[in-house]
Design a protein that fits this description.
The chain has 420 residues and is mainly beta. The chain is built from one helix and 36 strands.
């Protein structure tokens, strides 16, 4: 009888809330499932779960992620994986119409020890696939954190974000062993928006760390290390692009470290941070791009044309980044009218000459590319131990302001702001 009265009271409270216009929290009905699997490589004290378990407590975990249909879960649901566990997993599709930005579907870790290790060998497209080709559903609200996602050297992409998608957070995880760590293909009418890629190690992927298009998104605090280990000039640590009006707007890259990407036998031979296409409103700040040595074609940052369709880079700001031991050009810029480049440090301990910042001056590019002009280049420092033939800035763009860019050499190129 008491149970019935409590249920009746709960119903009356809910009806009163609805009549008053307040909202009930979706997290109140979100479900939590625990998982534990112990494939080879798991911790010694790993105890596997069983898919016949309820999965609703740590003491009765399920074993496989496939035992729960992630796309039928209510908003705010959580799938928690045991630390020290190992899963061998195929492609996992995210297309949950109930998920929201405020109440996302979450995959996270529980317990103590190493991150849950999800091995995804021999998988096409993505280990985690968000949507399908020609998907017009603008779904979103997914958070993945504290995981190790491993393509085992044989899978295409770790994360594949497709066409129309919003509010995806990938954080505090390790993404390794794929051809591309994170791949995003944005299309109309909405594109891929409100993505946060934060505090991950995106390393030792055969091709690129990140490839693709985003809008209203942030990439911050990540380590990009030893990606593109063939040194191909077509692959990079990150390669972002855009297509107006679907993608490439309002993107921030902040406080990331790019360490020895595109390196073969200790020498960088390809790209590190690259931008092509049609992009607007991009802030690049506080990043470090580091190599031990570099061939001439190793550029630290390329904001340049790469296609045979019209390209532009409007409202770009590049500030307070550090570039160490790149090739003949630290930062190359084309079709970026009004770009602001300030407070960056370029360190070159090699004997080869380098132009820290190079901005083209053409206003009549083919293919409809936007002309250069009105750049602001100020307060940058170039630390060249062998300064002969080098320059802090070569700016050919018309009506540009080039102020207080300094070249330091000799002992001054090793200390203070020039210290590695």
């Amino acid at each position: 009888m008491r149970i019935h009265k409590r249920m009746e009271m709960a119903c009356l409270v809910a009806l009163a809330c609805i009549s008053a216009g307040c909202s009930t929290s979706a997290s109140a009905i979100g479900r939590t499932y625990y998982f534990s699997d112990c494939q080879p490589g798991a911790a010694k004290d790993c105890v596997p779960g069983d898919d016949s378990n309820s999965g609703q407590t740590e003491r009765s975990p399920k074993r496989t992620l496939a035992s729960v249909n992630i796309n039928s879960l209510p908003a705010g649901s959580k799938l928690l994986l045991a630390r020290g566990g190992v899963w061998v997993q195929g492609l996992m599709l995210f297309d949950n119409p109930r998920a929201t930005a405020e109440e996302p579907i979450v995959i996270d870790a529980y317990g103590k020890g190493d991150k849950p290790w999800i091995q995804v060998p021999n998988t096409k497209n993505g280990a985690f696939l968000f949507g399908l080709y020609n998907n017009t559903n603008y779904d979103g609200g997914y958070t993945l954190r504290n995981l190790k996602i491993d393509g085992m050297g044989s899978s295409d992409w770790g994360f594949f974000l497709v066409h129309n998608l919003h509010h995806v957070t990938i954080e505090d995880s390790e993404i390794t062993g794929f051809h591309i760590g994170i791949h995003s293909q944005a299309r109309g009418p909405k594109g891929v928006t409100h993505v946060v890629i934060r505090n991950n190690s995106i390393s030792r992927n055969k091709g690129m760390g990140i490839l693709g298009q985003f809008s209203d998104s942030v990439i911050e605090g990540n380590l990009f290390e030893a990606n593109n280990f063939s040194g191909s000039t077509f692959d990079h640590g990150t390669y972002l692009s855009g297509t107006d009006p679907y993608s490439g707007k309002n993107v921030t890259l902040r406080n990331n470290r790019f360490i020895r990407n595109s390196t073969v036998n200790g020498q960088c031979k390809g790209g590190n941070m690259t931008f092509h296409g049609q992009m607007d409103g991009v802030v690049i700040e506080g990043n470090t791009i580091l190599q031990d040595s570099a061939a001439p074609q190793c550029w630290g940052m390329s904001i340049t044309q790469g296609y045979n369709t019209p390209e532009w880079f409007r409202n770009f700001v590049v500030r307070n980044n550090k570039f160490v031991n790149l090739g003949n050009t630290g930062m190359a810029v084309q079709s970026a009218p009004g770009i602001v480049i300030e407070g960056n440090v370029f360190i070159n301990t090699q004997s080869t000459p380098q132009t820290a910042i190079a901005i083209a001056g053409n206003r009549d590019y083919p293919n409809g590319d936007v002309g250069d002009g009105d750049a602001v280049v100020r307060n940058n420092t170039a630390c060249f131990q062998s300064p002969s033939g080098s320059a802090a800035a070569r700016v050919l763009a018309a009506n540009s302001k080039v102020d207080n860019n300094v070249v330091l050499s000799g002992a001054a190129a090793k200390t203070g702001v020039c210290a590695r």
